[in-house]
Amino acid sequence: MAAPLVVGVDGSDAARRALEWAVDEAVRHGAALRIVYASLWEYYDGSLPAGSPPVPAGRGQAEHIVASAAELAQARGPRLKLTADILAEDTVPGLLRAGRDSFAVVVGDRGRGRLPLPLGSTALAVASRAQGPVIVVRGGGRNTAGGFDRVVLGVGETGERGAAVGFAFREASVRGGRLDAIRAWRSPERGVATHAHTLAGAADPRMRDAEWALQHAVKDSVQRFPDVDVRRVTAEGPARNALLLASDEADLVVVGARRRTGQSGIHLGHVNHDVLQHASCPVAVVPER
């Protein structure tokens, strides 16, 4: 794989977890790793987390963060080809620009901000504006260590048009694990006593539609990645619930996002937004072409 993997660092614990995950990901794909620290307004970013060792301000702090990240990455991946850059620009534009020539951008779920938010503003902004895939590293333990050998793919209402599906299959292939492709469906009449499908126990036509959409979405990738063990799942209920439940025992959740017509960035949608904020494992947002 010629394109490098980009990871953003800022000295926070979340960025360290993202860096460790990115090193493992780059090794899996045989890709180079580019470490990026971007900050134009260091003075306004606030202090380092409590308990962090003191470091010089300004340029000295940036150099310390980048050097520490590079040292950690090299120790974790001794044969990994890596570069480390300090970008004198705001964090989000810097990561977006760096990501244009990468196969993906990796960020932590939170930065150095003091508010206990489930998802940091930088992660959300990069995920919603990047031209290529963005992985937000969240969760811990087995989820970030690849301990479940399981990738989850969310297939939306209209089906994914290829980018997210292909990304998920490649991830499952390099990990040698299983891929669960999930398509949620809902029936407003389900549970109503007079509803024919409730009385007869017959399959709801919406479930059959979901099964067809799921089969259609993964058909090409199943042929391209014969080594991947695919499990097709149609789940009744909100897509958010199905994906969050699946994330509890997954190494990665992959979701697709549509580009906004006539606008920059992509449309995350409420399901992707909820998954980014509450998933138990890293989440990859893949813009559809």
Protein architecture, described:
Belongs to the universal stress protein A family. Residues 4-138, 148-287 form the UspA domain. Pfam families: Usp. With 289 residues, this protein is an alpha/beta fold. The protein has two domains: 5-137, Rossmann fold; 145-287, 3-Layer(aba) Sandwich (Rossmann fold), CATH 3.40.50. Helix content is 39%, strand content 21%. The chain contains ten helices and eleven strands. Strands 1, 2, 3, 4, 5, 6, 7, 8, 9, 10 and 11 form an eleven-stranded mixed beta sheet that branches. β6, α6 and β7 form a beta-alpha-beta unit. The chain is globular. Residues 43-47 and 192-196 have low confidence and may be disordered.
Describe the structure using short key phrases.
single chain, alpha/beta, Rossmann fold, 2 domains, 11 strands, 21% strand
Short description:
By secondary structure, the chain is of the alpha/beta class. 39% of the residues lie in helices and 21% in strands. It has 2 domains: 5-137, HUPs (Rossmann fold); 145-287, Rossmann fold (3-Layer(aba) Sandwich).
